[in-house]
Amino acid sequence: MLTAQRKALLLDRLHAEGRLVARGLAEELGTSEDTIRRDLRELAAEGLLTRVHGGALPASPTHRPMRERSNMEVSAKQRLGVAGAALIRPGQTVILDGGTTHLALVQALPATLAATIITHSPTIAAALEPFARLEVIVIGGRLMRHSMVALGAATQAGFAAIRADMCILGVTGLHPEAGLTTGDHEEALIKRRMVQSAGETIVLATPDKIGAASAFQIAGLEEARIITTGEPPDWLPRAQHLRA
Amino acid sequence: MLTAQRKALLLDRLHAEGRLVARGLAEELGTSEDTIRRDLRELAAEGLLTRVHGGALPASPTHRPMRERSNMEVSAKQRLGVAGAALIRPGQTVILDGGTTHLALVQALPATLAATIITHSPTIAAALEPFARLEVIVIGGRLMRHSMVALGAATQAGFAAIRADMCILGVTGLHPEAGLTTGDHEEALIKRRMVQSAGETIVLATPDKIGAASAFQIAGLEEARIITTGEPPDWLPRAQHLRA
DNA sequence: CTGATTCGTGCAATATCACGCATAAGCAAG
DNA sequence: CTTGCTTATGCGTGATATTGCACGAATCAG
């Protein structure tokens, strides 16, 4: 049995059964337990599974790809997307942040819209391909894996050289005192720059963001126009609420 | 036993049994193990199989359902993708052009490759999302709709600030006199810049590009390492040709 | 707390690998 | 036919990978 083949089999098995037990596999594959443990250790080092006492479990779901995260709250995201898309008028220049809500916004854009979209998310840019009359500007930089947006000095400089009519911003928390926040420091820096480069800032907020505060502040609540679904809390007086 | 005949037999056997063991094949075919290993090494370089310790496994990318390995025919693009993916060594910095062939290359990348990929194609960048250990640098600019790559002065400047080990370049024509060409002037400018920013240039050419010439020259044939499928024309002496 | 598993590491035996070199076979030009 | 070149092959050698075992530490179950 080839080593690489055995490892592939282990991954297959893990995918099929959800867990691996070292002892049983050693007997089944006719090798020593040490060999199996070594395999599991190496696969774990490659991030392909999580090592536990006695065997292994699937890789931790904490940094799963974005497309799996987009399952939840489909309807709320779609309604927010439609509302956001309606805000973009022909001829405008709009900065569009990354994220699944904004992907839904792209899906809701009219096919013949003629406007300029500026984004630092390759996912968003790729989704804009079918819109023949859109001008799309990509802001480059080092790609952050989790959120799939460009970050760093180059991105900062790219946004600094731009003036847009509107910025549609993604956040992870809206809090009465903390304001608009996000969980990554570098992301916060870029988002702050995006707000500065736009005349108006829009936030499309799913209900789970309301009242939450992440570590790094982007701006105060009063600096953005908030659009959300569900019940309006009393500390969000200016927000626009979509009914279900 | 002719070399080509033996290689064909190896591929047949791999297809039938799902794996190859070097030692057993040497005995069975009455040759030395070195010869078998040499064959496997060469077939791996053509992307037709994956070399592992002790033998070889099918070239099927790891994140594709491995059950259907036997019946699906690999297209020329996929084989070029596999061959191109095999060129990227861990730790390297690689400029990757846009286009469907390079999308196939991304599909063929090993899931745990640790390298730096630089691209001005948001489509390519988005496809790189699942590769946890890749560093991805996006070069920004105005997006050209047809080819979905960033162009313009910002893109030019972005590539100018970079030195990569390798550039995997897309072209629309390879011609004995016109060299490497493309159909858009601005694209040609950027591609020229990409070639200058890399130590080595690779072109993965589908057969329809061979002998074709578009309006704008990027570089001479001799400046790039050409990898293609099908019959080699006599004016492409240095190219590497993948067997069917 | 205690016994039993399981884990990680070091180690040695074996298998496999890549590279260089020499030999032999095939081939084309003279 | 001879010469020179290329290609394929086998072998030696040092390097690398894999495996099983021993042993002490860590972890789990009752």
UniProtKB/TrEMBL annotation, chains A, B:
Claim: Repressor is one of the keywords in the record: yes
Any GO MF annotation of the entry: DNA-binding transcription factor activity
A UniProt-annotated Pfam family: DeoRC
Domain of life: Bacteria
Name assigned to this protein: DeoR/GlpR transcriptional regulator
UniProt cross-references to SMART domains, sorted A to Z: DeoRC, HTH_DEOR
Keyword field: DNA-binding, Repressor, Transcription, Transcription regulation
HTH deoR-type domain sequence ranges: 3-58
SUPFAM superfamilies (alphabetical): NagB/RpiA/CoA transferase-like (SSF100950), Winged helix' DNA-binding domain (SSF46785)
Origin species: Fertoeibacter niger
Database matches in InterPro entries: Carb_Metab_HTH_regulators, DeoR-like_C, DeoR_HTH, NagB/RpiA_transferase-like, Tscrpt_reg_HTH_DeoR_CS, WH-like_DNA-bd_sf, WH_DNA-bd_sf
PROSITE patterns in UniProt: HTH_DEOR_1 (PS00894), HTH_DEOR_2 (PS51000)
